[in-house]
Design brief:
A hairpin with a 5-residue loop joins β9 and β10. With about 400 residues, the chain is of the alpha+beta class. α1 runs parallel beside α2. The chain contains 14 helices and twelve strands. The N terminus is likely disordered.
Length: about 400
């Protein structure tokens, strides 16, 4: 069953992302994302949830910075209140990060640390479209331009590395229906413009059928990378496979300067419209719900925390469009600044604001996971969102949400 479910998820992800990847070839510097989940072995379908989470694609607006460690054990303590349990779980996450040197592992991935202990700039140059030779530290340390490129890579790429830890709570539609009928004790927690709370309170609850509502509590962390850490790394730890220095190798392995900082916590609700999926098994419904829940909370985190907002290239200047949509939490009237990426004489990147545009509520692309199967109207879907309010913009310019 697990193998069949994995095939189902993989096929769905490929079909959902192929058109986006093929038509959107603009090169820009994405933030990098590493996601983990809190596991609950006592939860029904625990193995299905974990498999769905770990096999799901990282949202295409991010670089995939996952490392093999993807799960954190849930804290159980009947002597604690709900509020105390939440704090205990956050403490368990901090302990997990420290014990497993998560920040150091993220740095090691950035610099392709080999089994021998050597580093290289291949991944940095690939993600940032830098010249790999110029980024070679042995050369860069002796040239003003090389140092500028290293600083740019740190500011544009490494510094924008994020970790999201997701803690899911699955609630069947039947349970939601019963609680809603008794006073909306649960349904009142559904916020936002989706109108989910009112939908759950409606008569449709009587025939909700199979399906799940998911509450996701997510903690957002950011990798700490500054001038001091960068200088220590390049000056004291850097080696490549051609010149292994055991002292430097040990210095990196024993270092404790790499850390992550908590940006904030957010809660999001995701509703699985199960009436469309009548032929899906319970396991498949849970798997779909898991992926949709992750997308929902990432969108909400980006809306709340400016530092986590990604840049997206314009698909076209006429019509004014971009390949983002409901998956990213777009709503009619949302404002985006239009940025022109420029490289200075020193090789460092900066962005000029060229204007502000708004999301056109009449054409918001529904690019949520498996949205095609949920749509009752199967006419051709325009795979982009339209915007209003600007002239002289062109494909490849970057947009970023500002409200």
């Amino acid at each position: 069953m697990k193998k069949a479910l994995l095939c189902f998820l993989t096929a769905a992800c490929i079909s959902g992302n192929y058109a986006q990847e093929k038509s959107n070839e603009a090169i820009y510097r994405r933030s990098s994302l590493f996601t983990l989940m809190v596991t609950d072995e006592n939860r029904k379908y625990a193995d299905v949830i974990e498999e769905a989470f770990t096999s799901a694609e990282i949202p295409e607006k991010f670089n995939n910075h996952n490392i093999p460690l993807r799960t954190i054990a849930k804290v159980y303590d009947e002597s604690l209140s709900n509020a105390e349990l939440k704090e205990a779980q956050k403490g368990a996450i901090d302990t997990y990060f420290s014990k497993n040197s998560i920040a150091k592992q993220a740095i090691a991935k950035w610099f392709n640390r080999s089994d021998k202990g050597g580093f290289n700039m291949d991944l940095v140059s690939k993600r940032g479209s830098y010249n790999a030779t110029e980024l070679d530290v042995k050369i860069a340390k002796n040239s003003e331009r090389g140092l500028a490129l290293l600083a740019d890579a740190g500011e544009e790429l490494i510094k924008n590395t994020f970790i999201v830890v997701n803690d899911f709570k699955y609630i069947s539609k039947e349970e939601v229906a019963q609680k809603a009928k008794k006073g909306l004790a649960l349904a009142s927690g559904f916020a936002g413009k989706s109108g989910l709370g009112s939908k759950l309170a409606g008569k449709a609850l009587d025939v909700a059928g199979k399906g799940y509502v998911i509450k996701t509590t997510s903690h957002l962390y950011k990798l700490v990378w500054n001038d001091e850490i960068a200088a220590t790394f390049y000056n004291d730890y850097w080696i490549d496979d051609a010149s292994i220095d055991e002292t430097r190798k040990a210095a990196f392995e024993n270092s404790n300067i790499f850390k992550v900082e908590l940006v904030g916590t957010e809660v999001a609700w995701a509703d699985l419209q199960s009436t469309i999926f009548t032929k899906k098994s319970e396991e498949e419904l849970v798997a779909i719900a898991t992926v949709k829940a992750v997308d929902a909370v990432i969108a909400k985190l980006q809306r709340k925390y400016e530092v986590f907002r990604t840049k997206t290239p314009l698909l076209s200047g006429d019509p004014l469009s971009a390949k983002i949509g409901l998956k990213e939490g777009l709503e009619g009237g949302d404002k985006y600044e239009v940025l022109e990426q420029t490289i200075g004489k020193d090789g460092k990147t900066f962005y000029k604001r060229k204007g502000v545009i708004k999301v056109d509520k009449k054409q918001i692309w529904d690019n949520r996971y498996m949205a095609g199967e949920e749509q009752e109207n199967k006419e051709e879907i325009k795979e982009y969102t339209l915007f209003k309010g600007g002239k002289n913009f062109y494909s490849g310019m970057l947009i970023r949400q500002i409200n």
